[in-house]
Amino acid sequence: MGKRRIRHYTNAMPLNVVSSAALVGLTNIPNIEAVKCAHELAVRMGFHKDPEFAPLINMFPGLAAAAAALCAYAAPAAAGSGIPEVKAYLNGIDAYSILAPSTLFVKIFGSILGVSAGFVVGKEGPMVHTGACIASLLGQGGSRRYHLTWKWLRYFKNDRDRRDLITCGAAAGVAAAFRAPVGGVLFALEEAASWWRSALLWRTFFTTAIVAIVLRAFIEYCWSGSCGLFGQGGLIMYDVSSAEATYSAPDLLAVILLGVIGGIFGSLYNYLVDKVLRTYAIINEKGAAFKILLVVGISIITSCCAFGLPWLAECIECPSNLKISCPTVGESGNYKSFQCQAGYYNDLASLFLNTNDDAIRNLFSTDTQKEFRISTLFIFFTAIYCLGIITYGIAIPSGLFIPVILAGATYGRLVGRLFESISKLDTGLFALLGAASLLGGTMRMTVSLCIILLELTNDLLLLPLVMLVLLISKTIADSFNKGVYDQIVKLKGLPYLEAHAEPYMRHLVAGDVVSGPLVTFSGIERVGNTLHALKTTGHNGFPVIDEPPFSDTPELCGLVLRSHLLVLLKGKNFSKDRVLCEEEIIQKFTTFDFGKAGSGKGIKLEDLDISEEEMEMFVDLHPITNASPYTVVETMSLAKAAILFRQLGLRHMCVVPKSQGRPPIVGILTRHDFMPEHILGLYPHMNPHK
Amino acid sequence: MGKRRIRHYTNAMPLNVVSSAALVGLTNIPNIEAVKCAHELAVRMGFHKDPEFAPLINMFPGLAAAAAALCAYAAPAAAGSGIPEVKAYLNGIDAYSILAPSTLFVKIFGSILGVSAGFVVGKEGPMVHTGACIASLLGQGGSRRYHLTWKWLRYFKNDRDRRDLITCGAAAGVAAAFRAPVGGVLFALEEAASWWRSALLWRTFFTTAIVAIVLRAFIEYCWSGSCGLFGQGGLIMYDVSSAEATYSAPDLLAVILLGVIGGIFGSLYNYLVDKVLRTYAIINEKGAAFKILLVVGISIITSCCAFGLPWLAECIECPSNLKISCPTVGESGNYKSFQCQAGYYNDLASLFLNTNDDAIRNLFSTDTQKEFRISTLFIFFTAIYCLGIITYGIAIPSGLFIPVILAGATYGRLVGRLFESISKLDTGLFALLGAASLLGGTMRMTVSLCIILLELTNDLLLLPLVMLVLLISKTIADSFNKGVYDQIVKLKGLPYLEAHAEPYMRHLVAGDVVSGPLVTFSGIERVGNTLHALKTTGHNGFPVIDEPPFSDTPELCGLVLRSHLLVLLKGKNFSKDRVLCEEEIIQKFTTFDFGKAGSGKGIKLEDLDISEEEMEMFVDLHPITNASPYTVVETMSLAKAAILFRQLGLRHMCVVPKSQGRPPIVGILTRHDFMPEHILGLYPHMNPHK
């Protein structure tokens, strides 16, 4: 029977759920605040006033510079959407800065400043990141630095539960951002998480249910206007259910065309974002000042577009029988006066001089067939599409959802206008389908986008068309390039493990890619040797080999982790001779001593204080050895080894020899050994597509 | 580098998608027909007429007997819901009868007859099974027996693609049954599939999108009434969106109570279904005649309830200002006349003497607070709850969704009536929440139920409450027993592999559970030996061991499958001496020769015709040996071995010795070795909960 050593894993099933709920309460509040503040700031700053815009043009770059400074100096990791980083973390890439408290802080306030500065950026991606950061903070037992710790959270001190918690956080972020609880679950599972389990489904569902209920309660409470703009619009952000969704063959044709356009523009968007990001990377590398300058530059371009382009549009007479005021002055609304006289409105200003949310609402508005001219839609689409591309990548927290929805809705409405003679479908619904197609073309999600759009707009009858459009745009875009988040992950150089094995891996075996000098320990090792190995290598796992007299022949005992070894060495349970002292060591430690520390924390090599005398003593590694590491034979097909590595979410995999009479281990495979760059570097003649 | 032998797998990505679409067209038609026919039969048989019911009582048992006879004689596997069987198949249990063409036939027509016979059964489970059967038929390249074969379908001749196709079929079934395309995807992933991949999500999404579009086209075409009752009600089966979903604190209290009741009744339902199934199993074992008698008996009880109980209800005066006729005579509707005079209706008859679909529609109907009396709801709930339990398990295709929704909606409405003084929520919405809570309590799904209910009722504003109710009922029910489908899988004795390792497995190692005599082959084996092994054992995989002179020491070469060995022996590539003849053999076969045959098909041992002389010859097993089998060391923790086995979807796992100088393989682990019964049989002192 197997011997149990110190338990490395603690499973915290019930506590996990309880804490998810708590987490969500916490996640939700900053999210709600962010929305609210951004809205209010925007309103106060005259987005909704008419064009005495001379002082504003100075104000926007100021806000932008503040956001950029926050980002550049306090937490560079907070720039961008955050979804690629969360995705990478959930794939097993544990980079400290991704989910650090400082990143959380900058993400929240940078996002508020960024949205207020009038950039064409969304708050959804940052909210996902915010949710994940808070979850990470809880998963680490709080922050010791800021004196926020809870003892019961120590149950999350293992990789898997912490990863689950962060998935819940990401789901909560989407749920709060779009007010789409089920969409949040599906987003977390389809886009964010790398490993699905039914328990995870249940946990994310629990989390977003709490979000929905808390959100609903807030909306109820704020109905009277006691919390500013928050809660306006209710649970459904862009309700289009009033429009009748009748469609026939010619409409289908228009919708298929929309899907095709979405696929092409979507993949082009990804291509251009990639190019722009590479250019910006060169500028951003030069220092914080350059980052801020770039942000201010883009801010000026954005402001010029927003306040300059509406001059191109002519005034349109207000339609009669409107329930809302036209033109609107000094408030959020559909018909902006801008430079027009009473009774007239400027349709381009109605899109540009609004918050992004209101602009989307205007584009989705139904029964307003002729509200926007074709030329207006064309100008707005071109401007927003380009601004969206050049804005992503500057040093502010910036989501991609809103720019993509804006651009998609605009060309959707444009197509609706062009087809109005033969199509019965409302232009507002065309805008919705356009948004769906561009989202499908850039992000390449399916079910989650479907549900998010359904929860945003409450139009179930349109579902078949939304599915059709997503299907077409994703298929077309997939034939050109990858989804935007995958592209960014790759561009950032994060060692993301794909779910499938690459075709060329079939022609290699596990032994082919094992690299580097192998450092092994004996079951009872000299302290000096372990310290030397820890100092001279960056390895996180070391194989332990039992030798005679502890076994008949040298055999693989298991694997020790660097972090556990450091804890053991810190405990100083050394002995003068090579003797087993397992019991003694086990008694000295508790399970929690070996719990996974917060990322970037834990004992460091410098914390150890080992005397010269102790260096010559021995330490028994058996109690901390994982005696059941996953192993593959060196002749195992690399493709199969990769699947094993990926499916089980491993960090180390031992490669053992096939024939007898050789040392019991050939090498260790880690995530980096499965990266295409590594393998194709070793075997340059390999064809990566075969 | 690894040497490639005959390719066992073919990946059919693009073809898969194309064929999914084709499959769906095919799946959809019988589904649609089933609904239509059942409806029409029911209407013709006087469900909607008033009580000249003497002839009907004879007719119902007749239909029931026909369904039972079909089921008992033609395909016993078609009885019941079918979802547990599909679930088991997708877990890797390849029982021939589960997805056979005869099962498909009986499932479709048995379901139509069963629904028409007035049983409290649903058509949803059978539709999922129907979808899976059609997918299986396509995945096998059609049916040779019925001369329906397509050559391009041979690309699915491997386990994984076929499993994917069947998942798509199940999704299509739900999508068609509830007219819920996204719900179908989620059902397939949450309940049916054992392995999730993002490619699978995309494929099921594709499938259900086609279902949605085809369905929408049919509804459009049938709008004028040219296809009977089909298409009535449009894409949303039970629309409740007209009711205002306003709720406050006291409503929440009522809703939480609903969730608690749902959890308790749900787990009780599962408990009773289990008991009833065990009782019926004894009766059904006695022969087909007993099966039919049981069905007729239940049919008579059902008819007595349906036509007898309404006499208990007093007539109620029709409400004024109704848009529909009251009382209704001779058609589907809400207010049944039964024995009442003009201007009055019988509320119990309005529930009993309707198709199940219409009864649900009546219960969900909004703005009809007082339509059903409390006593009526109580009687109907008791009757339906009990009928649902005693009906499941008889020899007809019978879904569980409809009975559970009916019972749940009834007590939901009952609770709504009880709380009407303090609650503002519509009783129709209470009925919906009741249905959600009982579904959550029996089936224990979360996201998929949420979306299915959303797509059934089109009330997005109620989503937070639906989530809350599901959360509570599932949590409570989970503390008593397992979900109903899991229970049935277990009861049927199917070796279902759970996603997680059992706790006691941590105390065992892989070597502890290896059982049975190990049969190994040499790399070049005597034909007689292989035949003997095939005859005397039921093993599906045999380890191949290379011995000197082909290697230095005996070493594990790989694993051959029984099916591949049979193909090789059929080819008769034998040689007089122990020589390698790999090239020659590879040239003689094509990839498709080794493709997985349809379940229950493929070459059998009896098909081989080996002469005495050939028995003494040798066959080179190397070309068909899988040279990279997954292996674990005998001292590997059984829990970790189980996770490896389950996560990678293996059928065989080789256990290799830890120390050198022993034979290169200790044994083979299969699915059965991981079953709790097997392990606890070997180690009776193990505590299964620790």
The number of distinct β-strands of chain A equals 13
Shape of chain A: elongated
Q: Evaluate the radius of gyration of chain A.
A: 28 Å
Distance between the termini of chain A: 45 Å
Given helix and strand content, the structural type of chain A is mainly alpha
Residue stretches of chain A low in confidence (pLDDT < 50, at least 5 long) are: 1-18, 46-54
**Largest sheet strand order of chain A:** 5-7-8
Strand residues, percent of chain A: 5-15%
Number of H- or I-type helical stretches of chain A: 25
* Oligomeric grouping of the chains: homodimer
Largest interface: A-B, 75 and 75 residues
User: Roughly what is the average pLDDT of chain A, rounded to an integer?
Assistant: 83
Largest sheet of chain A: 3 strands, mixed
Helix fraction of chain A by DSSP (H/I, runs of at least 4): 40-55%
Describe it.
The structure is a homodimer of 690-residue chains. With 690 residues, chain A is mostly helical. The first copy, chain A, has helices at 13-44, 54-74, 83-90, 101-116, 124-139, 159-178, 181-192, 198-222, 249-285, 288-308, 347-352, 356-364, 374-391, 401-418, 427-443, 447-457, 463-478, 484-491, 510-513, 527-536, 562-571, 582-588, 612-615, 638-647, 676-682; strands spanning 142-143, 148-149, 315-317, 344-346, 521-522, 524-526, 541-546, 555-561, 574-575, 618-620, 631-633, 652-656, 667-670. In chain A, the strands form 5 sheets. In chain A, strands 5-7-8 form a 3-stranded mixed β-sheet. Chain A is elongated, with a radius of gyration of 28 Å. Mean pLDDT of chain A is 83; it is low at 1-18 and 46-54. At the A-B interface, helix 7, helix 8, helix 16, helix 17 and strand 11 of A face helix 7, helix 8, helix 16, helix 17 and strand 11 of B.
